[in-house]
Design a protein that fits this description.
With 148 residues, this protein is an alpha+beta fold. It contains four helices and seven strands; from the N terminus they run E-H-H-E-E-E-H-E-H-E-E. It is globular and about 35 Å long. The longest helix has 15 residues. A hairpin with a 6-residue loop joins strand 6 and strand 7. The chain has a single domain, classed as Gcn5-related N-acetyltransferase (GNAT) (Aminopeptidase), CATH 3.40.630. The protein has a four-stranded antiparallel β-sheet with strand order 1-2-3-4, with helices on both faces. Strands 5-7-6 form a three-stranded antiparallel β-sheet, covered by helices on one side.
C-alpha cells in the first residue's frame, strides 16, 4: 500500500488523537489510555500544534502515523505509527522527515522499558545522552540525541 507524508492540518486532529490512543494502548496494554485522551487532546492543542512541525503519514486514505518535532529546540516529542504498519519502514520515513526539519540535530526521551524504540533510534544514528525523567509521569527515561 502506498504511503504519503504531508503537513498536519486541523482536520487531522481526531484521527491523530485516536491513532495515539490505540498505538500506545497496544504497546502498554496495562495502562488505560482511554482515560488519558482528554489530557492528550489538551496537550496536543496547547503544546504540540503551536510549537511543532507535525507531519502525518497516510495510507489507503487513513492516518497511519505522525511525527512532531520542534525545530527551535530540536525536540522530537512523538513518532507514532499504527500497529498494523509496525516494521513497514514508516517509522524510518517519519524519522527522516524529522531530521530534515531539524537538520542541526534532534533529541528525545524514550522510556527505559521500550527496547523496541531504543533499538530503532540506535539503528538510525541516535546515541544515549544520559538519564532523565518524563516531565509528565516522572518515570525514568533515556535521553537520546542525533547529530548530523
Amino acid at each position: 500500500m502506498n504511503t504519503t507524508l504531508r503537513p498536519y492540518t486541523a482536520a487531522d486532529e481526531d484521527a491523530a488523537i485516536e491513532l495515539w490512543r490505540r498505538t500506545w494502548a497496544q504497546h502498554y496494554p496495562h495502562i488505560d489510555f482511554n482515560a488519558r485522551v482528554p489530557w492528550w487532546r489538551e496537550r496536543w492543542r496547547s503544546e504540540l500544534v503551536p510549537a511543532c512541525d507535525i507531519v502525518v503519514a497516510e495510507s489507503g486514505g487513513a492516518l497511519a502515523g505522525f511525527v512532531t518535532v520542534d525545530p527551535k529546540t530540536q525536540y522530537l516529542d512523538q513518532i507514532v505509527v499504527a500497529p498494523e504498519h509496525w516494521g513497514s519502514g514508516l517509522a524510518r520515513a517519519l524519522l527522516d522527515e524529522a531530521k530534515r526539519r531539524s537538520p542541526a540535530g534532534l533529541y528525545l526521551l524514550v522510556n527505559k522499558d521500550n527496547a523496541r524504540a531504543i533499538g530503532f533510534y540506535d539503528k538510525y544514528g541516535f546515541v544515549y545522552d544520559g538519564d532523565d525523567k518524563n516531565p509528565v509521569s516522572g518515570i525514568a527515561v533515556n535521553r537520546m540525541r542525533w547529530r548530523p
